[in-house]
Amino acid sequence: MEILAFGVTADEKPLLERAFAGQHEVRCLDVFLSEDTAPIAAGYEVVSSSVNADLSGRVLRILAAGGTKLIAQRSTGFNNIDLDVARRLGMTVSRVSTYSPYSVAEFAWALALAVNRRIVRASIRTRDFDFRLNGLMGRDMHGRTAGVLGTGRIGEAFTRIAHGFGMNLLGWDVEHNPACLELGMKYVDKDELFASSDLISLHVPLLESTHHVVDEAALRLMRDDAILVNSSRGGLIDTDALVAQLREGRFTGVGLDVYEAEAGVFFLDKSLEAVEDDTLARLVTFPNVLVTSHQAYYTGDAVGQIIDTTVANVADYLAGRRSENTLVPS
Fold first, then answer.
1. What pLDDT, on a 0 to 100 scale, did the predictor assign at position 77?
2. 101-291 belongs to CATH 3.30.390.30
3. What's the Enzyme Commission number for this chain (predicted)?
């Protein structure tokens, strides 16, 4: 069988081909799955998609009409997939339910430290042989308070690093993680976490209940010198409200690896095009903001695990098996 994989990076292609070698052929495309590209999948029973694919009802109907029966998404998140339509069309949808939590947790800390110690600004200066320290003063993390929204596997890994820095730990989640409690974490309500934390890191999934969990009210509760990091999903933050607060000169730093309107922008080269997103254009101009393009997961360890799980998901589909990774049929 030949599998069609959309949104494959140059680094990912040899890993995918090697993982499927001896089992199936895999055709890798660097274009992302959308309404425009979906017709390419005609004749392919199995299609693999990336996290920023458009798998709305319209796209799923195009795929189903072309003979696609399995969507194997190479990510944990699946808010981009219309599962109800997939179910009605009789399609199978799978995802990667877990991969290295350290990849995302470590990157979240990289963002936090970079904005705290002004690493990007310092690097730009030294490239111009400007070695002054003016405007580069950061602060110790030791003894300060880290607020962690979402204490699952990634949130726990982030918490362990915070504990290593000697920070006080606040957490919020629907369930309390025993490992985080052992590290000394105190679970509080969201308002107290926002108000009391020097560093806030988001590690919750994007659900109806968590959409814009960091809204204008939450941002106003935060300390003026707080650091906010989001390496989870862009929709967790009301970006317009964040920009408004940044314009008031608030926050020591904001590190964003995700953006709520990133589809059609992230993972693409837009350097020669006019910027159409005024909010994103304004966001990246703030000197205390660092934006990266959804790369927190992007380590060889994590990508390898994602691909191995995708191979297993295809094998399960062909054998008629279901697993924790099967979203449809549930």
1. 85
2. no
3. 1.1.1.28
